[in-house]
Amino acid sequence: MSKKRILSLDVFRGITIFAMILVNNPGSWSAVYPPLLHAKWHGCTPTDLIFPFFLFIVGVAVELSLGGQLRKGAEKQQLVRKAFIRSLKLIGLGLLLTAFPYFDLANLRFPGVLQRIGVVYFISTLMYLYLSPRTILATGAAILVFYWICMTVIPVPGIGEANLEAGTNLAAWIDQQILMGHMWYQTKTWDPEGLFSTLPAIVTCLLGIFCGKVLTGSSEHGTRLKQWVTWGLALLIGGYLWSFVFPLNKALWTSSFVLYTAGWAFLGLALCYWILDVKGWKKWSLPFVIYGMNAITVFFLSGIIAKLFGLIKLNLNGEMVSLKFFLQEVLFNGWLEPKNASLGGALLMMVILFIPAYLMWKKNIIIKV
């Protein structure tokens, strides 16, 4: 693959990580524009697209990386070993990020964004290496149907009939049996990156693999765009129609959510490809390339820095406040409308994180987890 073809993926990845940091770090959670918030339960906002986009991109990268190595004669066992080590690193980084700075291991949350990426990446890699494309598609479809049936038909022990409500659905019950005391602190009874909902998340990555196969299977711009748009529209419509009986829900990662978000991912990457590779409009893309080249590193740093900003205390008018509140109060509050001030705080975090990302890009440092 040439750098020209990789550029679209780097930019799409960079836009995704940019958006992920933006929505995770508002100046104040009490004043946020609705599109920058997750849906309260059922539904799908632009913010809900971000994590599935990242898993989708992981799938594209699997095809580009492993496909190339296989064509060069790499042994599958060696690739599995590398994937397993990388998966453990991702899970370890996720646990470290969760534990920092207090390292209360007795109550450590086990699931998380990086942990899910690690698990999904490894399982998707195994399927990619040992199953045919047709079998992967069939398996992915079977997983989505199986998950749908389980979540809507199987009674929940101790609760009653199958339901899709927060904390009382089958996925939440499974988390409670295995992860009690180690789940998301805001709920304690279920986790948005829980065990059972990771199953359909694998399919999000598998669909990314097929997106990558379009890229490696043809060198014609028109062919790639036509296939991506066709896949995107079909998945988008399929997910929307399925949502009438199995609602879009990021926390549950419902089957309709998988199709719907993958549809947008196909279309989003197609748009980037058309702008960058077909039309050649590239000048605007450099900041996103810089973020995209070290996306995992930037995401990890964003979590660490955000926590440090909450821990460091400064004096503000005789009162000790967090560094985050201090910067928000001095730079944005008072002269900006609350939602704009909150957005300003998020953009400040983007600028802060751009500094290490830029330095790594300038020195051509790519940290491969």
Automatic annotation (TrEMBL):
UniProt domain Heparan-alpha-glucosaminide N-acetyltransferase catalytic: residue ranges: 5-229
Sorted UniProt keywords: Membrane, Transmembrane, Transmembrane helix
InterPro entries: HGSNAT_cat (IPR012429)
Annotated TM spans: 12-29, 49-67, 88-107, 113-131, 136-156, 194-216, 228-245, 257-276, 288-312, 341-361
Official protein name in the record: DUF5009 domain-containing protein
Source species taxonomy: Bacteria, Pseudomonadati, Bacteroidota, Cytophagia, Cytophagales
